[in-house]
Design brief:
Length: 148
């Protein structure tokens, strides 16, 4: 009985340590994608402040929009299969990958539209793209991000 209990205890401990090691293998990807999303959100907030209708900093808006488009293009590789643990990502990210990836591409496109609008100093087009981006973020959060 003691040998069986010891064997079971060792087996459980081994499985737990393997699970912990596997989960930690993705910590750099989880940290990178969380950092990228935070940078993107900070850039978007900053763009909104820079666009004031009369004296907008068009060059800075364009720079931030292009930076966000680049972030969106880099994000898909930061979601390897099995990297949900330790993150706020729902399993739907992987079970509905095409929809998730399409959302990232679409959002990246909105940032390209913002960059073009800034280049043309078109406040109406910029605000429209910002509104679309906001809706895209909210929609993605509802579908693919856990609240806690």
């Amino acid at each position: 009985m003691i040998k069986t209990t010891s064997f079971v205890s060792l087996s459980v401990a081994a499985l737990l340590s393997v699970s912990a090691a596997t989960a930690s293998d993705f910590s750099s990807q989880v940290d990178a994608r969380q950092s990228s999303f935070l940078s993107m959100a900070d850039n978007l907030r900053q763009m909104k402040k820079l666009e004031d209708g009369s004296d907008s900093d068009w060059e800075q808006i364009k720079t931030l929009a292009l930076e966000n488009a680049k972030i969106m293009s880099e994000l898909p590789v930061m979601f390897p299969e099995g990297s949900a643990q330790g993150s706020k990502s729902k399993d739907a990210v992987w079970s509905k990958w095409d929809k998730f990836e399409s959302g990232l591409v679409s959002l990246g496109g909105e940032f390209d539209v913002m960059a073009l609008a800034a280049d043309e100093q078109n406040a109406k087009a910029l605000k429209s793209a910002m509104k679309t981006a906001d809706r895209s973020c909210k929609s993605c959060h509802r579908a693919f991000r856990a609240k806690w």
